[in-house]
Amino acid sequence: MNTPTMLNFGAGAILLSGLTGDNWRLADYRARGGYKALEKILENPNHWTPDQIIAEVKLSSLRGRGGAGFPTGMKWSFMPRHAPEKYLVCNADESEPGTFKDRDLLRYNPHLVLEGMIIAAYAMGCARGYIYIHGEIWECYERMEEVLKEAREAGLIGKNILGSPFSFEVFNHHGFGAYICGEETAMLESLEGKKGQPRYKPPFPANVGLYGKPTTINNVETLANVPYIILNGGQRFLELGQPNAGGTKIFSISGDVKRPGNYELPMGTPFTVLLNLAGGVREGHMLKAVIPGGSSSPVVPASTMLDTKLDYDSIAKAGSMMGSGAVIVIDNSRCMVKSLLRLSEFYHEESCGQCTPCREGTGWMVKILHRLEHGEGREGDLETLDQVAHNIMGRTICALGDAAAMPVRSFLKHFRDEFDFHIKNRRCQVQDYV
Amino acid sequence: MSEATVDKSQWLNLVINGQPVQVPPGSTVMDAAIKLKMMIPHFCYHKKLSLAASCRMCLVQVEKIPKPVPACVTTVAEGMRVWTRSETAIAAQRAVISFLMINHPLDCPVCDQAGECYLQENTFGYGDCGSKFVEVKRVVAGKNLGALVSAAEMSRCIQCTRCIRFADEIGGKQELGMIHRGDRSEVVPFVGESYTSEISGNVIDLCPVGALTSKPARYTARAWELSSHLSLSPHDAHGTHIAVHTKQNRVIRVVAKSHEAVNECWIADRDRFSYEALNSDQRLTQPWMKKDGVLVESSWEEALPFAAAALSHIIEEHGADSVGALISPHASLEEMGAWVRWLRGLNCDNLDTRLRTRDFSADASNDSLNPSKTHSPSSIDWLGMPIADIAEQRAILWVGSFLRTDHPLLAIRARHATKKGAAMMSVNAQRADWRMPVAHDWVVPPSKIAHALAQIIVAAQGLKKETPFSLPEELGEIVPSEVARAIAQQLIDANGRAAVLVGSFGLHHENAEALKTLSRVLAALTGTTFGVLPDAANRLGAAWLRAHPITQKGLNARSVLESPRRAYVLFNAEPCDHDQGAVFSRAMKKAQLVIMCSPFKPDASMTRLPDVVLPITPFTEMSGTLINMEGRVQSYQAAVTPLGEARPGWRVIAALSQLMNCPFPESDLHQLRQTFVPTADALNARLAPRVDLAHIKLDVPRDIIHPNENTRAIERVGSVPLYQSDAIVRRAASLQKTTWAMPPRVGMNRHTLNELGLTVNARVRVMDAVLLDALRTEPLSVEIDETLPLRTVRVDTAHPLTWRLSGVSGKVHLEVCDD
Fold it and tell me: What predicted TM-score, i.e. pTM, was given to this entire model?
C-alpha cells in the first residue's frame, strides 16, 4: 500500500492527527488512545446508557458526513428500542467523483472507524454490523479484514466485548463499484445479494432495513467522530465547529490545485484557507469555479466561492451544498461544456435504470452535451437541456436523479456564455485564452 | 388490509380532486382513486403484483408534500388532500411521458399493441404534444422467449418490470430479469433458457406496450378490428373466464377475462393458445363416411340417416346392450344431457365419461346400484371449498397431484397461500417442481401411496388423543415415519384451515378409491377439508347428470372396452383420451359399427376408421354450460358461427334420436338448459359435505395398504402431459412447439438405471407387465430423473408415443430396442 502523500490536518484535527500511513494497526491505535471511549462506556454502563450516548451525540451536533448532513443523534434515536434484530451498516461505498476521504480513513485509521461503529451498535442495540466497502478500493477491503481479525482477537468485537454483556459481530462486504450502492437502500439490496437498486421510502431503513429489520446506515467519517464525542463530550465537539454542525470535516480537494489531498479542518473554515493549504491554483491560471461538495453539488463561480465559509449553511447560501466535502477546483483552462459532459456521462453510466426520469433523462442529457461539445449544438438545445434536468429533479425514487440534474442546471446558470459560444461558433471558448 | 377486516369507524377520509372518499387504513392513494373510479395514469402498477413505484407515471400532488409522490405507494393519511390534475401533477405526467417516448420507437402502425397500448393512451391523455428529442433512439435486440411469447421488439420495452414481477411472484420462478443498468437495461430470460412457465402468456396481457406480444397471433389483426366474446376455457375444471377475440367470424386470439373468485385475472397458456386448433386444417367441416375402406366426404343428409339406421339395426338384432358409448368429460352440460337422454331412451346403459379412471370399485357401492346401502350417497366429489379459499389455507396435503400441469391456476392460489406462510405438503410418486416452497414432499412408489396415507392417519390418531375414531386392525401394525408425523402435525395445527386434496394421479391410480377413502378419513381425523381436483372441465356436470352406468348390467368406461361391443358411439373421445388406449383401439377394430362425433378429423390413434364421422362444434362455436371444481355453474355463448357444416353436439344427438324414433322432449338449447343445468341449491345438495368422523368407515383392502414388499417389479408413474389434455389442446400448433410438448422420455433414478442395466439415452419400449404384447409405448429414450423413487419409471400417458400403454400407475416391463 502506498504511503500517504497528502494527509493534512491542522491543530484541531481529530480524525487524521498523528497518522503516518503505517501506524494503522491496533497497537498503534491504542498508543494514540484508541478504544478508550469504548472502555469508558463499558466500564461504567450505568452512566453510559444507550440513551446517554445518543444524547451526547445529539448535543455534539454531529451531522452525517456522507452527503445529506442528517443529524446523527436523531437518526440513531429513530431505531425502535425493543426490536429483537437490528443492523448497523457502515457506508464505505465512497464513489462520488471527487470524494476520497473514507478511503484514507479506512486505510490509515481503520480502528477509529471500528470503534465508532461498536459504540453506535451499543447505543442502538445492534448485534450485527456490516462494512460495505466500495468495489474499486480492494486494498481497503483487505486491510479491513486484517483489522477485524485484530479486533476479534483482542475481544473488541464478537461475543462479550471486553468482558461485558455486550456482543457485536462485524463483517466486511465489498461491492463491485456501483455508485448507486452508496444510496443506503440500494446498499441494503446489494447486501442482501440483489441488484443494487434503491427502495421506495417510506418505509425508511430504521423501520424496514436489511432483511426487513430495523437498520441504521452511517458514513465512515460520521462513525469515526463518535469516539471523540464520547471521550471529550458533545459540547467540546460542537465547539470545534459551527453551532448547528459540530466538529471538523475532511475536505477532499482535487482538480486544479497544486497539492490535492485530504485536509481536516474545523467546520466553518473559509474556503480560501483550504485553497491556500492545497497550494492554490497553478501559476498563470485563475480560479474559475468550484464544485464544493462532490460532483453532484451545484457549481459555484469563483467570485462567490472566495467569500464562502466551509459549513452547511454558508455553502447553501452560496447556492450549493456541503455534500461529502469533496471540493473540485476548476481553473480558467477548463471548458465547462466538456467538464459537464464528463460529469453527465458518469451519472448516465451509474443510473440504475429503475425509474423513468433518471433512466431516460441522464441519457438524453449526455446526448445533447455530446453534440454541444463536438460542435453540433443547435438553437434551443440549452433550453431542452435545462428542461430535461428540471423534469428529472424531485421525481425519482432516490437522489441520483437530482444528483445528475443539479450540475447541469448550475453549469447552465453560471456559465451559459460558454455553452452559447459552443453552439454559435462550433468550438470551445476556452481555447482562446489558454 | 381488506375492506372486510377493518371496522368502518377506523376508515380514513381523504379528498381527491375535491371528491371525498373513505378507505381502510393501509390503502394507497391509487386504491382510493380506483374506488372513486378515477383514472390515475400508470404503467408499472398492477393490482396483483408487488409495487415497484418506478415508472413515475402516477405522480400526484399531495397537500403539504413539496414534491409530487407516486399514488401507487403513497399510503393514505387521515385528511389527506390529493390532486391528480394540478399544475404539479400535470407537469410530472408530461415529463414522464416525454422521457418514456424519447427511446420508444414510433412504430405504432406496425405494432400489434396499437389500439390497446397504455403508452399510446397515456401519451394522448397526459402527454405534451411534440417532442424535443432529436437524438438517435436506443435499439434493443429482440429476445427468444419460446414459442408463445414474442419478444422480438424489445426496443418498445419501457422497463416497467411487470413481466419480471409476474414471473417471480405469480409464476413462482425468477425466469425473467433485468440485466445492465440505466438506459441500457434489458429484460431477458435466464441465460440460455426460454420462458417455460405454464402461465407465461399472461405477460402479454400485462405488458403495457408492444414489447411482449402473442407469437401465434402476431400480425393477424389490429386491435380495433376485433370483437370480444366472453367465454370459458374448457381445458380443465377451473372454469377459467376468457375473452375470445374474433375477426370476420374467425378466432384471432384469446385473452384473460378477470373473475376474481375464479381465475383472478390470469389464464393458463393452454387456455390462451388452444384456439389455434380451431382454425387448423385438422378441423372436420363436413360429415365423413367410410366407403371402400377410406373416409370420404359426405353430407348430413346422407351420413345422419345412415348412422341412425345402422345403429337401429344393431339394436334390433342384438339389443341395446350391444352398444357402447363414451363422451368426453370436457363436453358441456347441454351436450351430455342430450346424450344421456338419447342413450337412456334407447335403453342403453353402457355409457360413461370417466375415460381416464381405472378404479371403478366405488360403483359397486353406489346407491342407485345397491339401494340397500345407505352410507354411500351418490354425492359428488368436488374441491370441498371455493377456489379462492385455497389461498386462505394454512396447510394443504396434495395426494397424487401434479398440480402445475393439471391445474395451473389452482397452483397460483396455492402459491398465494405459501406467501402467507401456509405449509404445502405432498404425497406422490415423484417430486414435482412446484415453483413454491413445499414443506414436505414425500415421494414413494405408486403402490405405496396408500401405505403412506395410512402412516399419516396413524400419526394423526396418535396426536389427537380424544378422537372417537378407532382404527381398523389393518392399520394397527403401522409405525408412522418422521415425515408422516410432521404432515399430521401440520394438518392438525392448522386448526381446520387445512385440506387434503386428491389430484389427478391419485384419481387415475389403480387404487384410486382406496386413496380417496384414506384421504377422507385423514381429513375427518384432522378436522380438515377433503376434496378432489376434478380431472376434466365438466367432471362435476357429468356427475350431476349421472352420465355413467346406473344399473347392474351397465358397463363403465373400462369394461365397455374390455368386453367389446358390436357398436360404439364416440363423442369427442379418442383413444388418447382413454386410460387404456390400446384396449380402446382393439375394441374399435372388433366392432361392426363406430360412429364418431368430433370437431376434428380422426387422428392416427384411431387405427380403425369410424364408419361415420359427424362434425360437431368446439366451445367457441356454440353455447354451453360447465360446472367447475368448486361447483360453480357457468354458461358461455358462441363467439363465432360453426365452421363449415359442423353443428353443436346436442343438435346432432337430437337429430339422431329423432331419426331413431326415440325423440326427447327438449327441442332447443333453452329447454335443454332448463332440464339439465342445475340450480345452485340443487347442486349444493349433492356436493359431498364435509366428512363427519362418526359416519365414516375405513374399508380399504389389506393388500392395498400393505403391498408386497419383496418385489423387484418396476412401477410406472405417469400423467397427462400439459399439452395433451384434450382434443383441442393436442392440435394447437404453438403449444406443441413448447418444451412441455417434447417427446416423453423414460425417467428413472440412477439406482434403477443401474439395476436395469440401462444407459442414458438407451431406447426402450415400456410395456404392461401382464399384457406385454399390445400395451406398449413406441421406443422412448431413457433419462436420469432423481425425483423418482427406486424402481419407479416416469412415462407420460396420452401422448402419441405412449397412449397404447394403459394406466398412470401399475407394473411395467422395459424392453430394450435394437435401433
Answer: 0.95
Q: Do B182 and A350 touch (CB under 8 A)?
A: yes
Q: Which residues on chain A are in Cβ contact (under 8 Å) with B51?
A: 200
Residue appearing with cell numbers 444407459: B759
Report chain B residues whose CB lies below 8 A from the CB of A363.
103, 138, 182-183
The region, left, alpha or beta by phi > 0 then psi within -120 to 50, assigned to residue B280 is: beta
pLDDT at B3: 54
Contact residues, chain A, for B133 at CB < 8 Å:
364
Separation of alpha carbons A384 and A389, rounded Å:
9
Question: What pLDDT was estimated at residue B369?
Answer: 42
From B118-127, B692-701, B734-743, the region with the lowest mean pLDDT: B692-701
> What cell was used for B3?
375492506
Phi-psi group of B817: left, alpha or beta (phi > 0 → left; psi -120 to 50 → alpha; rest → beta) = beta
pLDDT at B370: 41
- List of residues 6+ apart from A75 with CB closer than 8 A: A64, A206, A216, A218
In the predicted model, is pLDDT for residue B688 greater than 90? no
If we measure between CA atoms, which residue out of B491, B457, B462, B463 comes closest to residue B475? B457
Distance from CA of A351 to the nearest CA of B (A): 5
* Cβ-based neighbours of A40, under 8 Å, separated by 6 or more: A48, A230, A231
ipTM of the complex: 0.93
Option in B59, B95, B182 nearest A359 (CB): B182
Alpha-helical runs (H) found in B708-785 = 727-730, 750-756
Q: What is the DSSP string of B452-508?
A: HHHHHHHHHHHH-TT------GGGTT----HHHHHHHHHHHHTTT-EEEEE-HHHHH
List beta partners, residue B767: B776, B813
Asked if the model's pLDDT at residue A153 lies above 70, the reply is yes
Say yes or no for a CB contact (<8 Å) between B95 and A396: no
**Residue ranges of chain B whose CB lies within 8 Å of a chain A CB:** 51-57, 59, 66-68, 70, 73, 92, 95-96, 98-100, 102-103, 132-136, 138, 158-159, 178, 180-185
CA separation (Å) from A97 to A346, A374, B95, B329? Answer: 8, 23, 28, 69
> Sign of the CA dihedral B554, B556, B559, B565?
positive
DSSP H helical ranges for B324-448: 333-345, 403-406, 408-419
Amino acid letter, A16:
L
* pLDDT, tens only, B131-152: 889 999 999 999 999 999 999 9
**Strand spans (E) along B518-659:** 529-532, 567-571, 593-598, 612-615, 624-627, 633-636
3-state secondary structure of B374: coil
Would you call B568 helix, strand, or coil by DSSP?
strand
Label the pairing between strands A287-291 and A300-301: antiparallel
Write the DSSP symbol of residue B556. Answer: -
Q: Are B806 and B583 in contact (CB under 8 A)?
A: yes
Q: For chain A, what is the mean pLDDT?
A: 94
Of B253-262, B328-337, B698-707, where does mean pLDDT reach its minimum?
A: B698-707
What confidence tens digit (pLDDT) does each residue in B418-451 have?
999 999 999 999 999 999 999 999 999 999 999 9
Q: In what order do the strands lie in the sheet with B227-232?
A: B227-232, B241-247, B250-256
Cis peptide preceding A202, ω within 30 of 0 = yes
Q: Using alpha carbons only, how large is chain A's radius of gyration in Å?
A: 22
Neighbours of B816 (CB within 10 A): 14
DSSP-based three-state secondary structure for B275: helix
Contact of A361 with A389, CB cutoff 8 Å = yes
Q: Is A250 helix (H, G, I), strand (E, B) or coil?
A: strand
- Grid coordinates given for A183: 444510496
Give Cβ neighbours of residue B87 (< 8 Å, ≥ 6 apart). Answer: none
